[in-house]
Amino acid sequence: MFDLSPLKILIIVAVIMLVMGPDKLPEVAQRLGAGWRALKGIQQRVESEVREAIPDLPTASEIARLARSPVSLLNQLADRVAAPEPDETAAPSEASAAPDDDVPLLAPDIRPSPPPPSAADWGTAPDPSLN
Could you tell me which residues come within 8 angstroms of residue 4 by beta carbon, excluding any fewer than 6 positions away? Predict the structure, then answer.
């Protein structure tokens, strides 16, 4: 939408400085700084409240890094699912017990998805315009 290069931004700032004059410029800069600090304070409060509600949430820098590389996010989530952390609340005897050899390991329940319903399932003739 807006394609502002650094040169265009510099020209806009120079025009604003000329229009405002040297006497109003410090006041405007002070207001902009106060507004920026207020926005940063709001951001920090919201982030701290979210962190209290969701303590396992990654940091903002981690989220930004993962947003730039969604494949690494998927890899990280797959690693979490593949190797769950051991339960620290379990008794030591349960955690160190070896699995029985006669108990078969259960395979995940993988079933093919059913075919989509056909026109005969709905009781209506197929629309010839769709072919």
Answer: 12
Please indicate, yes or no, whether the overall pTM of this predicted structure exceeds 0.70. no
pLDDT in tens, the chain (131 residues): 567 888 998 998 888 888 888 888 888 889 999 999 999 999 999 988 988 998 888 787 887 887 788 787 788 778 887 765 565 555 555 444 455 555 455 555 566 666 666 655 565 666 666 65
Cα–Cα distance between 15 and 120 in angstroms, integer? 71
Residue 27 CB: number of other CB atoms within 10 A? Answer: 10
CB-CB neighbours of 65 under 10 Å? 13
Contact status, residue 20 vs residue 29, Cβ threshold 8 Å: no
